[in-house]
Design a protein that fits this description.
heterodimer; A: Rossmann fold; eight-stranded mixed sheet; B: mainly alpha; MetI-like fold; 2 domains
Chain lengths: 736, 331
């Protein structure tokens, strides 16, 4: 097998095995991975974190430090300018490996914010790459760098040459890094989660750029991502990876239309998309990705698989379902043997749609039967909706910008600039917007974690609204009993030195609600309510996984039986399958405890899935407010349309993004005049630069507000709701 | 950049004024007045009363004693700025005369110690990080721990002991060989000093060098783990280019910013060593002045040391701003 592959392949990984040795023993992070990328192709490598995707891709270019890594087996063939080269064997020959890096294969990384050198200008960093590989004079290298910066869409390239990383936004840095990677015209670009750290609108721009450059520079791309929407959008073929093994490989159409492996099916079902039924449970995979050392023998997915069979103790065969679609699963083995590969249906015999959901609810104490969203839950809400639980009026949060020796105020950051909102009893209000739009500040304002610069906040736990804008902290403590808060990062929001009993029980003790053994009892109840074991009280946060930690944070937030919960990006730091579990848990608890919730997130698909109403925020202002479905089906503000269009939908070949918002979020200290969105708006008119549009009711719709001058004339494109994903044919744009 | 320098410069002046004010208050704190002390001292020495009167009068006029404190402070500060450090009552000589050579020697030795620390610690720390957990790394980790934990006067004593017992040296202490101690500065005296000075640099700088090795190693390890180093690797750069061009300039930042702080630390840290090795540095003089309640001398030394600290910090800030664009563009 030691022969180079045929010339069509740019990259051919054969049976790669990489293990890591540590004090605890050796674990195999990559276990027999075979993968290839053909000329001009974009291949997506998908899977949850900890599945060995990064190790695989980094092995190609020798970026995995060894030791501790040990390359046990396999070959990696890469097409270089000197012909097909086996790169694993080059590890001892650093010089040869270095000649390949940057010239034949390049890589862009997950964190653009940290991947640009902070003390070198953009120009220096890019020309350095050219001068390393080619004999050119500096002037030519300079010209080529400018040209490349232009190609990746950075405005005013000559000026960018002398700029430093901190002067560029995240999206611009990723563009600069793409320019850096492609300046020597490599045939293969390795992209390791290139858009995960970016805002959705910027993500859409970067994906578009990669797609565009693939054509223009005729290169191939190997893309790692955990986001099924991103691969659907960009990739031609997909490999799904789990615990060091490839579970399924196929063309993007095959995988999305007929996912064969239960893991692929689970990943797809876990994702809240703009098509899923709102406020219903997602069909999450059960459990979490286990530690490598604890992986089941045989099929590594067996312990989370809804179709697990006795034979799964043995390593499953890779079954060719049809040309270019294979899965490593026992479900298809017998079919192949008896009927031959042509007759294989890609659906597992047990029926994937129904069984997955039920088994995934194992962790919830009270499994919610799939209620129709129009049923009693909604009716209850109607009855309650007369009474608001929270009202904020014209609330603002301004930070002074101080400069100079005397700390004079030279400006103001208007983080929140006059926001009116109300949350009804038992209602979930979703607050969505890009990072830096002020949505987190709103959450901190309503809980009085920061003092508002202006405006009024009313809150009423027991029916009567009372003003809490400036009440003293002592009184506020009483009000806080009715408020709970869940934060984004479940690791840093739990004190690592406190055990779970004290973390969850602290609010109880603070408010004098329980003491001594009563605390233990209540904490036990709370833990079981969020799907953990009561007996785990004495453990410390590090003993839990990310999803479990978020459950603990939820238990803590609910300890004092609040009527109001602020959830600030509660799932954005979690893996897809865990994200679905936490969303399900929040939905269950909300209905069970009749909670009102302010759900803050940047992902409009997630927000839509849990919210009754949605408020869209841009640069400190609410630009659209309305029923969750109305907003997604018929957005009235161009920014909402942009957010919707930016979500990569898990439907291959879907033509989204007609008019993308241009550029980055403007500086909140110096917001544009008039309509704040006009600098990025594709429909901008002269009036938008001068007059700020107020938030007014939209046409004849009840409860739907927009802040656009032309909301009654524009017909913006939303996403039609279709319940379940049935394939590309069912995907539809909004009304014209 | 210009506003940044100006800002730092103004801050520097403010700090200096505050320190001088505090020093002045200390000078004024003891009950009575310097003139009474002087009068007593002079009469004890059986000086002619007329001379006493004229001397006292001279000092009264010179320091504006008897005027309000603000005026006196102005006078004192002004004379300090002109280089008049006041009068040492203990030694009966002007303070500036006492400090003179000691001060310049101290400053030169401190700068040399810093340079020694830099030249030794940065490469060792860097290599320790690059070859983490290698024999090199382990041995320097051990040595650095030793260097941090052994006080410098012990090193000095051990050194004295060794050179006497093993090498049979007779003149181990001091900065010069006996024949040069009182000699005028000459090329030969300078060469003689060089023979002695490296030992002093080693002893005084050992602790700081050891801790700097640790800081450098930790910073280099952090920096090598940063994603932009991966970016540099993926350009195909060689190890040397990655380490020196990309990692070093980021990793060295805290070491440069600590130089300003190390300066006075070295001066005070060298005091004990200077006493043990009988070096003509400023430290022992300060100790002497403090023990003898020689306020003018003590305060002058304090002000000068503060000046060294402030100027050192200023220079370190300039170096940082020159290195790091993020600081340069802050203002």
């Amino acid at each position: 097998m030691n022969s180079p592959p045929d010339s069509d392949k740019v990259l051919d990984i054969r049976n790669l095995r990489v293990s890591f040795s540590s004090i605890a023993g050796a674990t195999r992070a990559v276990n027999g991975v075979s993968l290839n990328v053909r000329s001009g192709e974009i291949v997506g490598l998908v899977g949850e974190s900890g599945c060995g995707k990064s190790v695989t891709i980094r092995s190609i270019v020798g970026l995995v430090p060894s030791p501790p890594a040990l390359f046990e087996d396999g070959e990696i063939w890469l097409r270089t300018r000197r012909g097909m080269t086996e790169t694993l064997s080059l590890y001892k020959n650093m010089k040869a490996l270095r000649q390949i890096r940057g010239r034949d294969v390049s890589m862009i990384f997950q964190e653009p914010m940290r991947s640009v050198h902070p003390m070198m200008t953009i120009g220096q960093q890019i020309t350095e790459g050219i001068l390393e590989h080619e004999v050119v004079d500096p002037a030519e290298a300079y010209d080529r760098t400018v040209e490349m910066l232009d190609l990746v869409g950075l405005p005013n390239p000559p000026a960018q040459m002398n700029r430093y990383a901190h002067e560029l936004s995240g999206g611009m840095r990723q563009r600069a890094l793409i320019a850096l990677a492609l300046v020597c015209h490599p045939q293969l670009l390795l992209a390791d989660e290139p858009t995960t750290a970016l805002d959705v609108t910027i993500q859409a721009q970067i994906l578009e750029l990669i797609r565009d450059l693939r054509e223009r520079m005729s290169m191939s791309v190997l893309l790692i991502t955990h986001n099924m929407g991103v691969v659907a959008n960009l990739a031609d073929r997909i490999s799904v990876m789990y615990l060091g093994r490839i579970m399924e490989t196929g063309t993007v159409e095959e995988i999305f239309k007929e996912p064969a492996h239960p893991y692929t099916q689970g990943l797809l079902a876990s994702m809240p998309s703009l098509f899923s039924q709102p406020k219903t449970h997602l069909q999450s995979l059960r459990g979490v990705v286990p530690e490598l050392a604890m992986a089941p023998k045989g099929c590594v997915f067996a312990d989370r698989c809804p179709h697990v069979m006795p034979i799964c103790d043995e390593t499953p065969p890779v079954v060719e379902l049809r040309a270019d679609h294979s899965a490593a699963c026992w479900l298809y083995d017998d079919v192949e043997a008896s009927q031959g590969p042509d007759a294989v249906t890609a659906r597992p015999p047990h029926g994937s749609d129904s069984t997955l959901g039920d088994s995934s609810q194992r962790v919830e104490v009270i499994p919610l039967t799939k209620t129709e969203p129009t049923a009693d839950a909604d009716q209850k809400k109607l009855a309650d909706s007369d009474t608001d639980l929270l009202q904020i009026e014209n609330v603002a949060l301004h930070y002074p910008i101080l400069r100079g020796l005397l700390r004079r105020q030279v400006g103001t950051v208007r983080a929140v600039d006059g926001v009116d909102l109300s949350i009804r009893r038992g209602e979930t209000l979703g607050l969505v917007g890009e990072s830096g739009c002020g949505k987190t500040s709103v959450g901190r304002l309503v809980t009085r974690l920061v003092e508002p610069s202006a405006g009024r906040i009313h809150f009423g736990a027991d029916g009567r609204l009372e003003e809490i804008t400036h009440i003293p902290q002592k009184e506020m403590k009483g009000v806080r009993r009715s408020m709970g808060m869940v934060f984004q990062d479940p690791l840093s929001s739990l004190n690592a030195r406190m055990n779970i009993r004290n973390i969850v029980g602290e609010p109880l003790m603070l408010h004098g609600m329980a003491r001594g053994s009563a605390v233990d009892e209540r904490v036990g109840e709370l833990l079981e309510m969020v799907g953990l074991r009561a007996a785990h009280q004495s453990r410390f946060p590090h003993a839990f996984s990310g999803g479990q930690r978020q459950r603990i944070a939820i238990a803590r937030a609910l300890a004092t039986e609040p009527s109001f919960l602020v959830a600030d990006e509660p799932v954005s730091a979690l893996d897809v399958s865990v994200q679905a579990q936490i969303l399900n848990l929040l939905l269950t608890l909300q209905q069970q405890l009749n909670l009102s919730m302010l759900f803050i997130a940047h992902d409009i698909a997630v927000v839509r899935h849990v919210s009754d109403r949605i408020a869209v925020m841009y640069l400190g202002k609410i630009v659209e407010l309305g029923n969750a479905r109305d907003i997604c089906v018929r957005p009235v503000h161009p920014y909402t349309e942009a957010l919707l269009a930016s979500i990569p939908l898990p439907i291959p070949g879907l033509a989204t993004l007609q008019e993308m918002p241009k550029g980055d979020l403007p500086d909140p200290a110096n917001p544009p005049t008039g309509c704040r969105f006009h600098t990025r708006c594709p429909y901008s008119q002269p009036i938008c630069e001068q007059e700020e549009p107020p938030l007014v009711p939209f046409a004849d719709a009840v409860d739907h507000f927009g802040a656009c001058h032309f909301q009654d004339e524009l017909h913006l494109q939303g996403v039609e709701e279709i319940g379940e994903i049935h394939g590309p044919a069912a995907a539809a744009g909004g009304e014209e | 950049m210009r506003t940044y320098i100006l800002q730092r410069f103004i801050q520097m002046i403010i700090v200096m004024v505050v320190v001088m004010l505090v020093s002045f208050i200390i000078v004024e704190l003891p009950p009575g007045d310097f003139l009474t002390t002087l009068r007593e001292q002079l009469s004890e020495q059986n000086v002619d009363p007329k001379v006493i009167d004229s001397t006292v009068e001279m000092y009264r006029a010179r320091y504006g004693l008897g005027e309000n404190w603000f005026f006196r402070f102005g006078k004192w500060a002004w004379s300090l700025m002109k280089g008049d450090m006041g009068y040492s009552m203990q030694h009966n000589r002007p303070a500036s005369e006492l400090m003179g050579e000691r001060l310049s020697l101290t400053i030169w030795i401190s700068i040399a110690t810093l340079a020694f620390m830099f030249v030794v610690a940065v490469p060792i720390g860097m290599l320790s990080a690059i070859k983490q957990y290698s024999a090199w790394d382990h041995s320097f980790t051990f040595l650095a721990l030793l260097g941090v934990s052994v006080p410098s006067f012990i090193t000095a004593l051990v050194f004295l002991l060794l050179s006497v017992t093993l090498l049979g040296a007779t003149t181990v202490a001091g900065l010069f060989s006996p024949e040069y101690v009182t000699a005028e500065w000459s090329w030969a005296k300078f060469l003689d000093m060089l023979k002695h000075v490296w030992i002093i640099l080693f002893i005084v700088g050992l602790g700081d060098t050891a801790s700097t090795i640790r800081v450098m190693r930790a910073r280099m390890l952090d920096t090598l783990g940063e994603p932009y180093i991966d970016t540099a690797r993926m350009k195909g750069l060689s190890g040397a280019k990655i380490y020196f061009r990309h990692a070093l300039r980021v990793a060295i930042n805290p070491i440069i910013s600590s130089i300003g702080l190390r300066f006075p630390q070295i001066i005070s840290g060298s005091t004990i060593v200077a006493i043990v090795l009988t070096l003509p540095l400023i430290g022992p003089l300060l100790l002497d002045a403090l023990l003898g309640e020689d306020v003018y001398l003590a305060c002058s030394i304090l002000v000068v040391l503060t000046l060294a600290l402030v100027v050192g910090n200023f220079l370190a800030d300039l170096a940082l701003a020159w290195l790091d664009p993020r600081i340069r563009f802050e203002s």
